[in-house]
Structure formats: C-alpha cells, structure tokens
Design a protein that fits this description.
Elements lengths: L6 H6 L1 H20 L14 H25 L7 E5 L4 E6 L4 E5 L3 E3 L3 E3 L12 E2 L1 H4 L8 E5 L3 H12 L3 E5 L11 H13 L3 E3 L2 E9 L2 E8 L5 E6 L1 E4 L3 E3 L6 H4 L22 E3 L10 H16 L12 E3 L4 E6 L2 H6 L4 E7 L4 H5 L6 E7 L5 E8 L2 H13 L4 H5 L10 H11 L6
Helix pairs in contact: 2-3, 2-5
Bound molecules: 1,4-dihydronicotinamide adenine dinucleotide (NAI).
Length: 434
C-alpha cells in the first residue's frame, strides 16, 4: 500500500490537481492574458520539471502534515494492506514484507475508490492514463483525448489544454458536468469551448489501440451509431470511479456490498455488522473528500457519544476550472422531478463590479427557492471564485435560510459575493444592478 498518508485526495486527487490547475492558469495568463492589463511579458516559457516539482512539494508538505497529526494524536500507523480475518481482526500484509494482526472493538472502513476500468482499455499511465497518470505526464502532449466530460475530465482536460495540448473530450451523455444543473452545463460548455477544448457529445469510445506511438480512438455516436476515428498522443480515461474493496476480505467479516459494489450503511454509518462502520467513497453518496471527512467525524461521534450529523442535502460540489463551477442543493431538473414549485433568481457576473474591475466576468449565480416559503433549495454558480462563494450558500441552507435572508445581509463592495446577494434579491423581489 501507499507509503504516504492522505489517500487519493492528497496523493493523486484533489491536492495535486489543484496545484496543476493553479500553475497552468498562471502560465496561460502570463502567455495570453496579461497584455490586456497593460503588462507586457515576452518569452514566457514552461519549465515542465519545475511545474511538477511544485505540485509534488505541495503534496509532500500536506502528507507530512497528516503524519504529524497522527503523531500528535497518538494514532498508530500500521503500514500495509489490511484484510478482515473475522469481525474483529484485520491481518495486515506490511509494506516491509512482514505480516501482523490488529484487533478492533470498533472498525471503520474507509478504503475509498479507484478509477472505473473498461475491459479492453489497457491503462499504462503513460499514454492511456487515469487521473493518476494525467497528473504526472512527462511532457505536454500535442493531442489529448479525454473520455468522459465529468469532473476529472474537465479539470485535467483544462490543465493540459492551458499548457498547450489540443484537447478533445468525448462524452456519452448530451451534456457535460455529470449531474450539473442543465443551464449551467450548457453555459459552461460554451466557456470551455471558447477556451479551446473540443467536445464530441453523445458519443462513446469503442476501442483504444496503440499504433506507432499514437493512440487510435474509435468512437460511435450513441444515437444512430455513426463511427469515427480520432488520434491522440495521450488518452485520459475519466469515466467515473468505483468503490475499492479488492482484497479487503469483507466476506470473512460478513459485511455486505450492494450491486454497485458499495458497502451500504445506515444513518449511524453502520454496515450490516453493527460495530463495523463505513465512510467515504467506498459507501453510498457522492465521492467527495469533504463528504468523507464529515462522515468520518460523525461515525466517530456515534462511537464515542451516540450521535453524529451529516446533512446530505447540503454537500457542495466544485469543479476547479477557471472559471469554477460550484453548486449546493437541488438543480432545476431534480425540483421538477420531485414536483416542487420553485422560483429562480439569477445574476450575471458581467453586471458585478468586482468581476468587471478584474476583467474576469464570465459566469452567473442562479438561486432556486421554494415558491411559497422562499427557502433556498439550491444555488448554482459559474465564476472565478465559485468554490469559495458556495460556502455562504451552504451555511444559509444549513440554517434553513431564505433568499430574503441573504438579500438583506450586507455584502462588502466590491466583491464577487454581491452577485449572490443580487441573485437572491432577484428571487425574492428584484435585483438592483440589472
Ligand atoms: P464523473 O462521474 O464526474 O464523470 C464521468 C463522465 O464520463 C460522465 O459524464 C459520464 O457520462 C461519462 N462516461 C462514462 N462512460 C463513458 C464512456 N464509455 N464514454 C464516454 N463517456 C463516458 O467521473 P470522474 O470525472 O471520473 O470523477 C470520478 C469521481 O471523482 C467523481 O465522483 C467526482 O465527483 C470525483 N472528483 C471530484 C473532484 C472535485 O470535487 N473537484 C475532482 C475529481 C474527482
């Protein structure tokens, strides 16, 4: 097993990808966008090795931070791969080749997820890569094909596109963003297209072959079956992740998984074996680090105090592209499906003074509220700071807040968060600045 703590998020997920998103954004800005601010830069060059080294530095600093927290909190780290022997004992094949057994009165399964594999798509993490390989490519590929325009495809597609790759995303569904509000998905696709990413929607990949240093990608339209052949230097397979329980020996403990391979839980995070609890990507719910963290805290609270709390209706999602996309609560389709009457308040960043000042005014805020009570049911944002702005929306929803509550809260001027206030004003009466 991995020699460092922190799981997928820290080692090969959220953290290294955000480092690359930041540096690729800086590079792209320096190369293409500085002149409009009256700053003339010339001879902007990419030092690939340094770019990767900065990413690795941020990962190792945070990994060491967790190691420090383990020590501080007197947590033993048994380095190896664990397998249930029975309902209280785990055998660990240690990384150093030896073996040991640990016992627990309470056990929490938090084994996470791994990329979904498609039979016949042979991942080598060099030319045909998952997110792991896409975080460590040795050079900028001339042409990259991304299979799946979900969160990983959009984030890592953006990284390599900004660094100079010609990126094409092939997506099975008619819209990008894996569950994003349809209006935002449409807007966001337009923005990504303008940034240079090409999309082949409603299309599936039928085969991948490596020929003469290239990858030949055969595709087929979902409707009508029209076939096409594409060629790339690197193909990123980002079609979702699956719960990881390989070799965990769940059967030895009598812990059940559902048809999707998820270890199911009840409200107290208990599996079907009461003292074995489960949290994170390996169980039901969105595969997000912050959801896993909240579940971890709550599961431990159940063990120590007998109660804990995670509000699954208020878990934010963020895509860390530029602009970012962030949302919390329900989207329009979900409200329609549930027959909930709602009102919409929206506000474009093109009318927000701060966004105009910094010439970064792509995107909008859209607030969905209960038509009768004005309670906020969902907020959807495309904007350069959307991931930070969504925190205020989650807090308001956690307290059962209404659009009037946010609209009557004084927001500093000039800030991007005034766009949220204006969208809320639009939902409950009318916006000031449109
Ligand atoms: P995803 O579920 O976000 O997107 C997968 C996309 O691939 C979907 O749009 C799907 O329609 C498409 N797809 C599936 N099979 C396909 C095929 N054969 N051909 C073409 N398209 C196909 O999954 P992704 O991007 O791999 O991410 C995995 C998980 O990691 C997600 O649960 C995501 O939430 C999480 N994640 C979250 C991040 C964040 O919060 N910023 C960053 C990265 C990952």
């Amino acid at each position: 097993m991995r020699e460092t703590l922190g799981g997928t998020c820290l080692n090969v997920g959220c953290i290294p990808s955000k480092a690359l998103l930041n540096s690729s954004h800086l590079y792209h800005t320096a190369k293409h966008d500085m002149e409009k601010f009256g700053i003339e830069v010339s001879d902007v060059k990419l030092n690939h090795q340094k770019l990767m080294a900065q990413k690795e530095k941020s990962v190792s600093a945070l990994c060491n931070g967790i190691q420090y927290l383990f020590k501080k909190n007197k947590i033993d780290w048994v380095k190896g791969k664990g397998t249930f022997l029975n309902q209280n004992e785990i055998q660990v094949a240690l990384n150093n080749g030896e073996s040991t057994t640990v016992k627990g009165k309470n056990i929490i399964i938090a084994t996470g997820s791994v990329p979904t594999d498609i039979p016949g798509f042979e991942i080598d993490e060099k030319q045909i890569v998952t997110s792991t390989g896409a975080l460590s490519l040795e050079k900028v590929p001339e042409k990259m094909i991304v299979i799946g325009a979900g969160v990983i495809g959009l984030e890592l597609g953006s990284v390599w596109s900004r660094l100079g790759s010609k990126v094409t995303a092939v997506e099975f569904l008619p819209e990008i963003g894996a569950g994003m509000d349809a209006e935002l998905a449409k807007n966001f696709k337009r923005i990504m297209t303008k940034q240079g990413i090409a999309f082949k929607m409603g299309t599936k990949v039928t085969s991948l072959k490596k020929v003469d240093g290239k990858v030949i990608v055969e595709t087929e339209a979902v409707k009508g079956g029209k076939k096409d052949t594409l060629e790339a230097d690197v193909v990123l397979v980002s079609i979702g992740r699956r719960p990881y329980t390989d070799g965990l020996g769940l059967e030895n403990a009598g812990v059940q998984v559902n048809q999707r391979g998820q270890v199911e839980k009840n409200d107290h995070f208990e599996t079907n074996v009461k003292h074995i609890k489960v949290i994170g990507d390996v169980t039901t719910g969105p595969m997000l680090a912050h959801k896993a963290e909240d579940e971890g805290v709550a599961a431990v609270e159940y063990i120590t105090n007998g109660f804990g709390h995670v509000n699954y209706d208020v878990i934010p999602s963020v895509i860390y592209t530029h602009p970012e996309v962030a949302w919390v609560g329900k989207n329009e389709q979900q409200l329609k499906d549930e027959n909930i009457k709602y009102k919409i308040g929206s506000f474009p960043f093109s009318a927000n003074s701060r966004a105009k000042t910094v010439d970064d005014a792509e995107g909008m805020v859209k607030v969905l509220v209960d038509a009768e009570t004005d309670r906020i049911l969902g907020v959807h944002i495309i904007g350069s700071n959307a991931g930070e702005m969504i925190g205020e929306c989650g807090l308001a929803m956690e307290y059962g807040g209404s659009s009037e509550d946010i609209a009557r809260t004084c927001h500093a001027h000039p800030t991007l968060s005034e766009a949220l206030k204006e969208a809320c004003m639009a939902a409950y009466s009318s916006a000031l600045h449109v």
